[in-house]
Amino acid sequence: MTFDVILLKQTGNGYLARPLLWPDKVVHGNTKQEALDGVRELIRSLIGQTQFVKVDVDLPEQSNDHFWLAKAGLFADDPSWDDFLTSMSEYRRHLDEEHTPVLI
After folding, report:
1. Percentage of the chain with pLDDT > 90?
2. Which pLDDT does position 63 carry in this prediction?
3. In what order do the strands lie in the sheet with 15-19?
4. pLDDT score for 62
5. Which phi and psi angles does 100 have, rounded to 5°?
6. CA-to-CA distance for 23 and 94, rounded, in angstroms?
7. What's the predicted TM-score (pTM) here?
8. Of 24, 28, 33, residue with least CA distance to 14
9. What is the DSSP string of 16-40?
10. DSSP H/E element including 45
11. Between the CA of residue 31 and those of 19, 38, 103, what are the distances in Å?
12. How many angstroms separate the CA atoms of 35 and 58, rounded?
């Protein structure tokens, strides 16, 4: 069986190995191999004491309303919307023209 392990080199002080399934468990080794061997032994020990089970959890009703969804269509019937978009486009074009680099 394969387990994910975080292996962290400590400056001047060997290695720490931490199995991701048990984040509160840590093994220290002077070498990388020593830390990995230690974490293998730790996982073997923990497997004997651990049960992996699935549980169902009843969650409260959640609203599917997204924060921005309430704003969707806010300007759908605004008669000035097209004018606004045209004005915005012209303004952006003006800014682009002002900031166009001159090549010499």
Report:
1. 51
2. 65
3. 5-9, 15-19, 27-29
4. 66
5. -75, 125
6. 56
7. 0.51
8. 28
9. EEEETTSTT--EEESSHHHHHHHHH
10. helix 32-49
11. 17, 11, 59
12. 41
Both tokens assigned to 72: 């969707």
How far apart CA 27 and CA 17 sit, in angstroms, is 5
Q: First-to-last CA distance in the chain? A: 66
pLDDT in tens, 70-81: 777 888 888 998
Which tokens go with 78? Answer: 């605004």
Rg (CA), the chain: 30
pLDDT(88) > 90: yes
Question: How many residues does the structure list for the chain?
Answer: 104
| Mean pLDDT, rounded, for 61-75 | 74
Run of H or E residues at 15: strand 15-19
* SS3 label, residue 86: helix
